Amino acid sequence: MKDKDIQSEFDIIVIGGGATGSGIALDATLRGLKTLLVEKNDFSEGTSSRSTKLVHGGVRYLEKAVKKLDFNQYALVKEGLKERYRLLKNAPHLSRAITLVTPLYKWYEIPYMYVGLVLYDIISGKRRLGKSSIVSKKEIIKKFPSVSRDGLKGGVRYFDGAFNDSRMVISILQSAKESGCEVKNYTEVTGFKYVDEKISGVKLKDSITLEEYEANASIIVNATGPFCDGIRKLDFKEAKDIVKTSSGIHIVLDKKFLPNDEGLMIPKTEDGRVLFMLPYLGKCLVGTTDEIAKVQERPNVSEADIEYLLRHIKKYFAVTIKKSDILSSWSGLRPLVVDDNAENSQEIVREHSINSSKSGLISVVGGKWTTYRKMAEETLDFALKIENKKNLHSCQTKNYKLVGSIEKISKIKEKLGKFSFNKDLNEHLISFYGDCALEVFKYIEKFGEVKLHDDYPYLEAEVYYSIDYEFTKKPLDFLVRRLGLGLVDKQAAIDCVHKVSLIYKDIFNWTQEEYSMYLEESKTILNTNL
Ligand code: FAD
């Protein structure tokens, strides 16, 4: 699975290494198409590492479906629940069922919410993850000691999925690569090539070496999320926008604010949104907001957004959370399909759109992480209807076990049990690498059990592993997107950035100048916007 030089003739080129592009690359490769995926930054550096980390049908959409008798919203929930089940089954090391509790302060809300959640369970059918229930006031106080008790009547509990989004992209891409796909990060599409006005290839620029080159394919898919319209305009200057972007921020707090393994779902914010407090990588993740925003890399986290989240947490918590309690924050851009009838970004149905330009550039945008696989399947079906290719398999991804999930978790535990790792390290290795933990172990044998940071079980050996197997090229690829440390504890990531950068310097033969440049770049990003 180590990186190798690129060839130039493909059946399909996928632009964008987020959830959508990765899913398409895997599906295409498994059908038998010679596939190239290119990403201008690091894989998952866009929206796909900035989600709320839920694999869900969307309880909120269900409420809308029922209240407005909206079939589209209902279909979206049903499809989401089907895909939730598949994602959890195909990548069990990176995902799990999670319970979410909603504290309620009015008696009538308890039956109202409960009935809605029972409906959510019914729509899940045999793919249900667990049974929704009513929770007593006493249990809520016991499980969530800092929840405000004033007027608390009780609550409800339901099941959804939770996952590690950025590692999921890597697992999908490793799977694609194992099956023959070429995957290139830090490779930007700067233009297109045409034969008889039909799109026939892409112009590429390596954003590290600045080398420019070309690759050809008869199918080209634009899966660039928030950047979709920019790419469409590279193909056709007059293309009408089909994407609206809305930003959503998350903040991360210490685990003490959410001391057990359940999440909290706060059902109605002042602007009608749902807010989550979730356990994530040993911390408490809070999000999110929803504001129309312009397309940009590393979108800002505004003071107003942080105030918004803190204001809502305060409504439900008896403790005050100060800005200094925030360990990290980041913003992501939702690529929403333009809906002229929607009054604001929350009104836009989270469906996806697949279309082809006059020259044949296929663009796919919208949807959500949970449905990445289904979007990929539909995109390939769409592309292959236009482009007739022979001897291909049908879609293989419904039951396709991703890299890391071939062996059962119990089996991996048994194998890792032979080594004398402590419990935290064992759990970390399994939940990050699944059965690849055994490969990581070879790196631990070679480089020793040297920790990166006193407060975390993470090891230097993992940096080496990530360079060889997880496509990392810069320190923050590892610290933010493979390890997630920058996302949950910026200071800890800053503490280890030196050590990690030295390893990259060594492996990539950076000059002292290059090393200083990458170190400064990493520190600036960690100190400002991720
Ligand atoms: P992206 O991840 O943005 O990927 C597009 C990629 O294209 C980028 O990496 C970009 O660098 C690359 N690119 C752009 N231009 C070029 C070029 N010229 N050449 C090469 N590459 C290029 N969904 C859920 O199911 N569950 C959730 O809990 C959830 N929470 C969310 C919370 C927030 C705040 C947000 C914003 C979204 C959330 N979503 C959630 C939705 C989900 O994250 C997105 O639908 C999904 O990540 C979009 O993936 P994508 O691949 O389309 O876009």
Description:
It contains 17 helices and 19 strands. It has helices spanning 19-31, 59-67, 71-90, 109-124, 137-143, 165-178, 228-235, 303-316, 372-386, 409-416, 423-433, 437-447, 460-469, 475-482, 485-488, 490-508, 512-527, and strands at 12-15, 35-38, 54-55, 95-104, 133-135, 154-163, 182-184, 187-195, 198-206, 212-216, 219-222, 243-253, 263-266, 275-280, 283-287, 291-292, 328-337, 352-356, 362-366. The protein folds into three domains: 9-47 and 166-241 and 348-387, FAD/NAD(P)-binding domain; 54-162 and 244-338, D-Amino Acid Oxidase, subunit A, domain 2 (D-Amino Acid Oxidase, Chain A, domain 2, 2-Layer Sandwich); 409-527, Helicase, Ruva Protein, domain 3. Helix 1 packs across helix 9, helix 13 crosses helix 16 and helix 14 crosses helix 16 (490-508). It has 530 residues and is α+β, with helices and mostly antiparallel strands.
Would you identify the regions where 5 or more consecutive residues have pLDDT less than 50?
A: none
> Which small compounds were modeled alongside the protein?
flavin-adenine dinucleotide
Mind telling me the CATH class of the largest domain? Alpha Beta
The general outline is globular
Mean pLDDT: 93
Question: Strand fraction band?
Answer: 15-25%
Q: Would you tell me which CATH topology of the largest domain applies?
A: D-Amino Acid Oxidase, Chain A, domain 2
Distance between the termini: 28 Å
Structural class: alpha+beta
Q: Helix segment count? A: 17
What's the name of the CATH homologous superfamily of the largest domain? D-Amino Acid Oxidase, subunit A, domain 2
The total tally of domains equals 3
CATH architecture of the largest domain, please? 2-Layer Sandwich
**Based on DSSP secondary structure assignment, what is the total number of beta strands?**
19
Using only C-alpha atoms, the radius of gyration works out to 23 Å
Helix-residue proportion: 25-40%
Main sheet specs = 10 strands, mixed
